[in-house]
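User: I'm putting together notes for a lab meeting next week and I want to include a structural view of one of the chains we've been expressing. I don't have a solved structure, so I'd like a prediction I can at least talk through. The sequence is below, exactly as it appears in our construct file.
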Amino acid sequence: MGGFRSRSTSGDKNSGDKNSGDKRASSQGGGRGHADRRRGGGQSGYRRKSESHRQERADARDTRGSGDVVRDLVLSVLRQVSSGDAYANLVLPKALTRAKMSGRDAAFATELTYGTLRAQGLLDAVIAEAAGRPVSRIDETVLDVLRLGTYQILRTRVDDHAAVNTSVELVKANGEEKAAGFTNGVLRSITRTPAKKWLAKITADRGPKVEEIALQHSHPRWIAGVFNTALGGTEQTPAADLEEALAADDARPLVHLAARPGQMSGEELALVTGGDEGKWSPYAVYLSEGNPGSLPPVQDGLASVQDEGSQLIALAVTRAQVDDDAGRWLDLCSGPGGKTAFIAAWGSGDGVTVDAVEPAEHRADLVRKATDGLPVRVHVGDGREPRSVDGLDVPAEGFDRVLVDAPCTGLGALRRRPEARWRKTADDVPPLVSLQRDLLRAALSVTKPGGVVVYSTCSPHPAETVEVAGSVAEETGAVIEDATALFPELAGAGLDSA
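Assistant: Thanks for the context. Below is the predicted structure for the 498-residue chain, given as structure tokens.
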């Protein structure tokens, strides 16, 4: 984590413009095809269907079930994600609620859904090997069933026989009766080889070590390369921490709560909820299970769901030294409002007012809801042109503290968005970097001399973090500061200043 300072005239098997004076900112790194079904390679191979046959298959799915309500629900979510570009973290909770599913069934459904989506690259490689053909030649519904079955075989304690049989029934229940034999054959072939041997088989002769590690931990090669570079590794010598980082990215994430500053401490929140106190933020609490929205502190506005890393970014805004802080703070990219609420709650007892800018009206509404009762003024507009944002009164001397939590690839938050790694590409980076530079320049242009800008992304990509910070600092004369110095809690965590 690093920063920019405005030079004062006074001195985030188990069931991604020039100004007067130097400014400072801190940087935190961070449907497809019914073609004819054809036989091939000794097994039935099923190609993707055309649009003309989608509805009849959908009708069959709507009126039938496999008899396994958990796997029926999981497959429904997987289909929405793979063919409808839906987001699992939005679709799954709604599906669980509609099905009135809770407890162990809900936990199992969540593990199967998120696990299958996270491991898609690895699963596809195994399926292709077992089927004797690329997954692109397998019907999309059948492929999702195969992914779900393969995940259970390789990465859970579900009995192989149960994983195979329930998958065959899912295929039948979803209008693909003729693919039952193909599904059975592929999955039974997978059960004959232990998971570790499958890993060895599909990673053999894969080329550079980074590519092998990427496949082992089910990450696209380019994302593993980004992590490797950020950790100081090279193509020939991967970073020592690369495997650990990618494994952590695949781990099932805990729910993180944030106690609202001035209302409740992390210790109190842990006692009330039965969770564990966070390791780094004094306001964080970890929950291993349950619906956080049903907790009284969350319902009463005393706490919210917020990653601990996001809490640290908000804390950086409040802890950075500012000359003569007059209490005019700005959140330039505020949606959906979690960090805005955190910093506003922190400063509310000291007469602080936070102006929050968000370009999308629907996300501005989320900010309004998140900050209800707090000293926050929400504005809809383009953060790249703050002086043109309707209703935003930029102080003549500039804002004291500005947060730029910039749009990014989100490569540092992939485990909470399991399908994201398979949707993002390296081509997404350049336009985001351009936007990030514009936002940081704009933030510095409305920050007073001696004020602070905290620049953050939920990405470890050097192009989105240190390179943005460094280039804008050189261009504007801003001074980069080490934000890790603001966190004595992180002492011994092995973080490098940047």
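A couple of points you could mention at the meeting. The chain is about 45% helix and 15% strand. Residues 5-46, 50-56, 58-63 have pLDDT under 50 and may be disordered.

User: Perfect, that's what I needed.
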